[in-house]
Structures are given as structure tokens and as C-alpha cells.
Design brief:
- It is a single chain.
- Helices cover 75% and strands 0% of the residues.
- The chain is mainly α.
- The two termini are 40 Å apart.
Length: 232
């Protein structure tokens, strides 16, 4: 992909090879926190529709979606680093340094997953196959897991491809705020520093990564729903 115009004698490939593991580490940590918690809250919210738990999950998800990640990241820095002094302000060296940026990214993902999972679960519970399963006398746990959750995951998979790609490639603003040496920081610096080769290289890399993630999601459709499979 050529040489960087900002970093002398350094190729774009070498910069990507060094920065991508950092962004991937941050992204995997955020997804590991957001996915199980977001799906769990969405399921609980749908199962307890109209109750206090449901209203609480909805309020939390709306707030999480509404607040931009850079504001949330700055707020976490102000509270836990400046005021309470329990966590480091920035950098990416120890495990303690990785907590705030991980939470800043995960909260937004968690809120989005909660909203989508809740809406999908509410839609699935009204389907005929769920009513048929209930009329057959299947246990509540069997119906929820085998019929409701499994089918409700399909919309989640649809958005999971772009979400995973964007998170693993590095969230630009968060990496800039927390001074994380990942792809997001390099992307912002390449734009502000007019490093054209770096900008184009990262754009191509992100596009290829996004296509790959969407391809893997298409394969996952067949695992979740046997009806969606390639046939001759």
C-alpha cells in the first residue's frame, strides 16, 4: 500500500500490522462485555414486558444509544480518573488502562443490542409456531430457547457483521481520546496530517474487513436457522 507520508520509511502495511492487534484487542473486549449483557437484557425486557424491569431496560438502552461515545468516554475519564482517581486517564499499557475505553465502547453496543433483541423477541412471541409449541405443552424454557431466542437472533446477526467490523477496526474517537495506538488513532492522524497513502490504505483495509465480516454473518444464518442454507 505504499509508504506513509507522515512516518518516514514506514510502510502502510507495517503500521496496520502493528496497530490492528491493539484495535482488535479493544474491540474483542468490548464485544465480550456488550454481547452477553445486551442479549440478556433484551430477553429479560421482552419476557417482562410492561413491568418495572422492562421500563428500566428501555430507559437504559435509550440513554446508551443517545449519548455519543466521545461524550461517554470523556465523562468516564472525568469521574473515574480525575475525581475518584481509581483508574488511569489514558494510554494502553496495563489492564487498568483498558477498562475505561472498553466500557465506553461496550455501553453503546450494549444499548443497541438490548433494543434490537427486545423488539425481535416481542415479534417472535406472536408467531404461529410459538403458539403451536405452547399448545403442544412444551415447557416454557424449551419454547423460549428453541423457538423464541433462536429465531430472534437473526436480526442481531444482520447487524453483527458491520458492528464487529467497525469495533475491531477501532473506534476512531475513543482511540483518540484515550491515546490508544490503534487503527482509529492512525486514521484520525492521517486525515488531519494529510497522510493520503495512510488514509487510503486504512480505507481499503476496513472495506476488506467489512466484506469478510458480512460473509461470515451470511454463513452464520444457516447455523442459527436451518431454513436459510444454500441448496442446489
Amino acid at each position: 500500500m505504499g509508504y506513509s507520508l507522515k512516518y518516514t520509511n514506514r510502510t502502510v502495511n507495517s503500521i496496520i500490522a502493528r496497530a490492528f492487534p491493539v484495535s482488535a484487542d479493544l474491540g474483542l473486549r468490548s464485544l465480550a462485555l456488550a454481547l452477553p449483557v445486551g442479549l440478556f437484557l433484551g430477553i429479560v425486557s421482552a419476557r417482562k414486558r410492561g413491568k418495572a424491569v422492562d421500563y428500566l431496560c428501555v430507559v437504559v438502552s435509550v440513554i446508551g444509544v443517545s449519548i455519543p461515545s466521545f461524550i461517554l468516554g470523556s465523562f468516564l475519564q472525568f469521574v473515574f480518573a480525575l475525581k475518584l482517581k481509581v483508574l488511569p486517564m489514558a494510554q494502553w499499557t496495563t489492564e487498568m488502562h483498558k477498562i475505561l475505553p472498553t466500557v465506553a465502547i461496550a455501553l453503546g453496543l450494549l444499548a443497541t443490542l438490548t433494543r434490537i433483541m427486545r423488539a425481535s423477541m416481542l415479534e417472535v412471541t406472536t408467531q404461529d409456531y410459538v403458539k403451536t409449541a405452547k399448545s403442544k405443552g412444551l415447557s416454557e424454557g424449551k419454547i423460549v430457547w428453541s423457538h423464541e431466542i433462536r429465531n430472534a437472533l437473526i436480526p442481531i446477526l444482520t447487524m453483527l457483521g458491520p458492528m464487529v467490523a467497525s469495533v475491531l477496526m477501532g473506534t476512531f474517537v475513543i482511540e483518540k481520546i484515550f491515546a490508544i495506538p490503534g487503527l482509529g488513532l492512525h486514521f484520525v492522524n492521517s486525515i488531519t496530517g494529510l497522510d493520503y497513502t495512510m488514509t487510503m490504505g486504512l480505507t481499503v483495509f476496513f472495506g476488506a474487513f467489512l466484506v469478510t465480516a458480512n460473509f461470515l454473518v451470511d454463513i452464520a444464518y444457516g447455523v442459527v436457522d436451518p431454513r436459510i442454507r444454500i441448496a442446489k
